[in-house]
Amino acid sequence: MDLGIRGKRAIVCASSKGLGRGVAEKLAEAGVDLTLNARTESVLRATAREIADTYGVKVQVVATDITTEEGRKELLAAEPQPDILVNNAGGPPAGLWSDWGEEEWLSAVNANMLTPIYLMNAILPGMIERQWGRVVNITSGSVKSPIPQLGLSNAARGGLTGFVAGTARQVARHGVIINNLLPGSHETDRIKGLLEKTSETKGISIEQARTEAHAANPTGRFGTKEEFGAAAAFLCSQYSGFIVGQNLLLDGGAFNSTLG
Known about the structure:
There is one protein chain. This protein has helices at residues 18-29, 41-55, 69-78, 102-130, 151-171, 189-202, 206-216, 225-235; strands at 9-12, 33-38, 59-63, 84-87, 133-138, 176-183, 247-250. The longest helix is centred in the middle third of the chain and has 29 residues, at 102-130. Helix content is 47%, strand content 14%. The protein has 8 helices and 7 strands; from the N terminus they run βαβαβαβαβαβαααβ. The protein has a 7-stranded parallel beta sheet with strand order 3-2-1-4-5-6-7, sandwiched between helices. The chain is globular, with a radius of gyration of 18 Å.
């Protein structure tokens, strides 16, 4: 299926591995030129080489911390007029409500709410002027079904969801489409960390924790970055123009609800 975005330019944040890389690969497969961002330059450059060699698109890298103002300026200087923005950031640590003080809260809100908002604010005027744009925010299934030990993530990503709900409806008439993609459990470093935490808490092996997690999902497994990347690429395509301000849940049916 031709997604109609060949030759477009995209910024994909946190894209050296995991779900971000899955999105970058599917956009590259669709013919999109990429600006990839992550903090670890060596891993980021290796990913960029592999994607460029495989798909024949232009790929540049910006190894920086976009949760800082300086990092965002560096990223936007490298790609000031993206047609597509994919916001993505690792989630804050798991724990109990009593574990978190002001520093932890400010860090979570900055990374998972304010940083994607600042990036959207920076690129939306150009998209509106060009009458075309796509923004996909990778948030979390916890936005719809809160995870008790991920209170920092539940709260910060919930704030981003509220911002998108209003903003998406204000810019849609200009051909600029914003949606959120909500991953459940996927085969990433993040899920490995959560399984380790479950193993420690329950006093079971990591493999037992994995088996229990698989059994709890209707599909009997975790999702893959390829599945996730394909869903994101569709939301960035020419066909997503009537999908506005939505929260698409990719969790294998774990969230049990008739109306999402």
